[in-house]
Amino acid sequence: MRIILSKSTEEAVDAVTTIILDKLASRPSMVLGLATGRTMEPVYAEWVSKVRANPIKMDKAFFFMLDEYLGIDENHPSSFKSYIKDRLIHPLNLAESQFAFPPIHLGGEYYERLIKEAGGIDLQLLGIGVNGHIGFNEPGSSVKSRTREVELTPETMEANKSHFGAGKMPSKALSMGIGSILEGKELLMLATGKSKATAIKYLLNHHDDESCPATFLKSHPHFTLVLDPDAACRISLNI
Q1: Pairing label, strands 62-65, 31-34
Q2: What domains lie within the chain, and their CATH numbers?
Q3: I want to staple 152 with a disulfide (CB 3.0 to 4.6 A). Which of 69, 128, 156, 196 is the partner?
Q4: 131 an active-site residue?
Q5: Is 122 considered catalytic here?
Q6: 137-183 confidence digits (pLDDT tens)
Q7: Exactly one of 67, 68, 112, 228 is catalytic; which is it?
Q8: pLDDT tens-place string over residues 196-226
């Protein structure tokens, strides 16, 4: 496990974006797994800014999205498909055919086959929930779990309900499983803000604990965790 402790949120975002773009530049045909949510918004903004300033070829890359809400249309403005179209696909004129989205009408086994046919995910980008979830693998998820339908916890629904305004927040999602995520060749997690500090402290002090699914990532041989000062405020690191 590699930990990058940044001096600011901006520095943490820059570290993550630099890792992604350096790998894309060295291997234009790589397969990336992408996460969404507020934590990732500045990552995609900087990604777009950097590529516009120093273009790299991305037309041969392929992207798998980590999860998607169930019970809403895929083109709903709060869907993760819309999220990535607005923040990456359209700004960089990428082809939608370069992206695979969790197939809410076809189920998890179909998505697992697509990932396998692509040769697996070279680099999986991840955030962490306030309760330690990764993707939508909520506490109690098995390390062997695969892409499947999941029930969202009240904490997760509370954290995400603002995206839906006056509309109803979905209570279910289709998410890559922990087992699916761990098959990625490299894992890259970004955690920012004080709301993530408790989860980060738990992650660093526990192993393979279903009550905090992120702890399973520590067994991965190529797991990088990038923290800003607020996310790291409850831990002590001599690095």
Answers
A1: parallel
A2: 2-227 (3.40.50.1360)
A3: 156
A4: yes
A5: no
A6: 999 999 999 999 999 888 888 887 877 877 788 889 899 999 999 99
A7: 67
A8: 999 999 999 999 999 999 999 999 999 999 9
